[in-house]
Amino acid sequence: MKRIAIFLLFILFSAVVVSASPASVKIGNATITVGEHVNIPITIDADEEISCATIVVTYDGDIVRVASVSEGNFDQLVCNNTLGKIKIVAFQTGEKGLKKGIVANLYVEAKNEGYSPLNLEIETLKDNEGTEVPATALNGFISVSSPTASPTPSASPTSTSSPSDTDTTPTPSPSPTSPTTSPATTPALSPSPALTPAFSSTTPSPSPSPPSLSPSLESREIIIQIENMTIEEGEYAEVPILITGDGVKYANLTLFVPPIVEVEEVYAGDYENFSYNISNGRIEMVAYTNKYLKGTVKLAEIKMKAIGRANTAGELRLEVNEIRNETQITVRNGQILIKEGKKEELTLFILIAIMIMAIMIILLMMLWKKKSIKKGGR
Q: d(Cα 23, Cα 370) in Å, to the nearest integer?
């Protein structure tokens, strides 16, 4: 009895260990314009106390630059900050570690327009005993756009003398035909009311029209959609996310997934740069390209597994965080349905096969028994 109890306790402990979720290290996302700065934290979330973390962050140094790295919630921080790559070591000096908190803060400067992934690599993550803790790295991104140029107000017309003005109004000069001699004290060129400067004339010359602003973009519609899908119980399916509309170079979307399916993998579509994060039933996706994409393009393809019961359905809901080069957005969400698989047909087939085999065995046994009786009678 004692052995059975120990065996049951061992099984229970193993189940608890297996069900423990791994720790996660996550870096935030940001969207800024050229010349701006933003603070991006690196956070940790674990079920046990973490006393030391060594993390490497890589990014596109042509797009952004990490100006500085500051401490988070750990007691000490050491880092090696080079363009495009940062190595961070954060640790506790006391006996207790941290389960949740900020590992470090990155102060990032936007250099040029574009998109840069923020990729994490966890070199080491140790608990208070110095034991390695398994962890998942959740990458981030930073998107940099050009500053929006505000229209320059046109200068109001001012009465400024120009060559054309002075040409149309002759400068008065002494008349050579006047024989009258005036006293020496009287200036020959004394001003008179007739010699009013041309720019103060009561009849203003036609002022140039103010420069017209650049014409607004022609209104166009961007359609973002995820297709409907039907999956059999326990089976897999790949669901595409499509964007219809010309010139969409940058897209930041979130897909909310119902609990009846499980996301297995996310594949990049037609965009050159693509990153994603999966957490708590949603997928955050960012895609960027320097190409001019036309028509309908694929942003991503989601591989899902049906884990719900048959005849259950859920909504695949898209949320647009940011889309560039657009004036109107239409979002078309999808539906996913789980249908019964072929298990019943297979079970029926197996049952019929077993019945046929049983009948054949019975017939063979009867035949063998009949032959045995005949031999015994002889």
A: 71
Between 198 and 258, the higher pLDDT residue: 258
H/E segment holding residue 85: strand 85-91
Which domain, by its residues, includes 293?
221-339
- DSSP for 231-282? EETT-EEEEEEEEESTT--EEEEEEE--TTEEEEEEEE-S-SEEEEEEETTE
Cα angle 261-264-266, degrees, rounded to a multiple of 5: 110
Quick one: which of 347, 268, 253 has its CA closest to 303? 268
Supply 14's token pair: 């193993």
Q: DSSP 3-state assignment of 374?
A: helix
Q: What is the pTM of this model?
A: 0.48
Cα-atom radius of gyration of the chain, to the nearest Å? 40
225 vs 334: CA distance, rounded Å: 7
Q: What is the CATH number of the domain that holds 78?
A: 2.60.40.680
Output the pLDDT for position 327.
63
Q: What is the pLDDT of residues 145-171, one digit of tens each?
A: 888 655 454 444 444 444 444 344 444
Q: What percent of the chain has pLDDT over 90?
A: 40
- 101 inside domain: yes
